[in-house]
Amino acid sequence: MERGLYPKASAFKPDRWVWPHFTPLELACRCGKFCGGEYYHDPDFLDALEAVRVRIGFPLRINSARRCALHNAVVGGAPLSQHRVALAVDIDVAGWGDRAAAPCAKKLWRRDLPVSVTARIFCTWIVGG
Ligand SMILES: [Zn+2]
Questions:
Q1: Number of domains into which the chain is organized
Q2: Comparing C-alpha atoms, which of 65, 61, 30 is closest to residue 45?
Q3: Could you tell me which residue ranges the Peptidase M15A C-terminal domain spans (predicted)?
């Protein structure tokens, strides 16, 4: 399967989706105004993300994934942010409870994931709620 940009998540054919814990929609741009919800497909990244999800054993809350150019600019993302250039995810770990003792999924599973993929998985703590 090839990498590539889709103008909206629904443009990706469901029969080609083989990552059970995620959907194109939750990984698409969520600006709601600048684009149609564009989605960047990267099967290698999805394989790694799915592996992290299975290893953790509970749902991952994705705060941010693909960002269109304008959305990335509005949220202050770097022009060459992987959220903008391809696909990256910010994982909200605020509700992890005792599991938050672990630094974050990125550090926990770095050794098993290709460098280019771990560099695109970020964890977010929202201090004080
Ligand atoms: Zn957008």
A1: 1
A2: 65
A3: 20-97
